[in-house]
Specification:
Shape: elongated
Distance between the termini: 85 Å
Structural class: mainly beta
Number of domains: 2
Strand content: 25-35%
Number of strands: 16
């Protein structure tokens, strides 16, 4: 493609770099940066300017010459996200230019913040400086700022074995055989399912075993919208079902009906998996389904 004859490339360059004196105020600021500190200067009105200036921008009066160490942490007051860094930018990955009011300062410092994502840097975010290992007395001695650590993610995985108690084993043996086994407290005359060896009401030892029918009533339920390997589909219903003859409900799935049609008082019956597929597990009960009987008033 032919070049445009009316366009010419130009380069402005200072061989060896542009050199200027810093003066006592900026010089002090850069010297402190080289030593890993950030300072501001106090004005006659008591405000702390960071970066320090020779004159108060508010009234033009000379500053007091009193230097105040600030930060190193600060608060982001505003930020602009850079999605595609340029070659001369301080970071080679997306970052933000931010106004940072360091602790103890009354003005904000502009610097880069490596937050990883624009939504991770709302106003009010607390940040801390990341220093270069080799410092020379330049604003880039502060490599960038990074958000303070406010959350950690710790992978947790515990492997353990749980042995069923004798009472739970007895209950699951009944489930394997297509029966619900409960127990009756001789003192309270309460019938509980699953089977247990002590009464939750009075604490007495229970010895009487009771077989209950596989029909019952929904006392309360929840519609679940998160996948569960036990459920046939999403949404699904988990419910407390009071088996006929029991005094305490048990939790199970409800199926064979749209989730939004399940209701309190609905009569249900257990749907068992085929005999050959039953094990010592509640998975032997696929779910409870409506019987078609009139609802029970609870």
């Amino acid at each position: 493609m032919p070049s445009d004859p009316l366009t010419a490339a130009h380069v402005l360059e200072f061989p060896g770099g542009y050199t200027r004196t810093t003066g006592p105020v900026i010089g002090r600021f850069l010297t402190e940066l080289r030593d890993g500190r950030i300072v501001g200067v106090r004005t006659a009105e008591g405000r702390v300017l960071v970066p320090p200036l020779e004159y108060d921008p508010g009234d033009g009066e000379p500053v007091t010459g009193e230097y105040v160490e600030v930060g190193p942490a600060g608060t982001v007051t505003a930020a602009a996200w850079v999605a595609e860094p340029r070659p001369d930018h301080p970071l080679d990955r997306p970052f933000a230019w931010a106004l940072i009011e360091l602790d103890g300062a009354d003005t904000a410092l502009v610097h880069a913040v490596d937050s990883g994502h624009p939504k991770a840097l709302p106003p009010g975010t607390r940040v801390r400086p990341v220093w270069r290992h080799e410092r020379v007395g330049h604003i880039t001695d502060l490599a960038y700022f990074a958000p303070e650590v406010t959350r950690i993610v710790s992978p947790i995985r515990t492997v353990y074995r749980l042995r069923a108690s004798p009472s739970l084993t007895r209950f699951l043996e009944g489930v394997r055989d297509g029966r619900f086994l409960g127990c009756r407290c001789a003192t309270c005359d309460q019938v509980y399912v699953p089977y247990r060896t002590s009464c939750p009401g009075c604490g007495e030892v229970i010895t009487e075993e009771v077989e209950l029918p596989d029909t019952g009533t929904v006392t309360t339920f929840a519609i679940n919208n998160l996948p569960d390997p036990r459920a046939p589909e999403v949404p699904f219903v988990s419910a407390y079902i009071l088996l006929d003859g029991a005094d305490l409900p048990m939790i199970a799935l409800v199926g064979g009906i749209p989730a939004d049609e399940v209701r309190q008082g609905m009569r249900v019956r257990a749907v068992w998996v085929p005999d050959a597929e039953r094990t010592l597990s509640m998975a032997s009960v696929r779910w409870f389904a409506p019987t078609g009987e009139p609802d029970v008033e609870l």
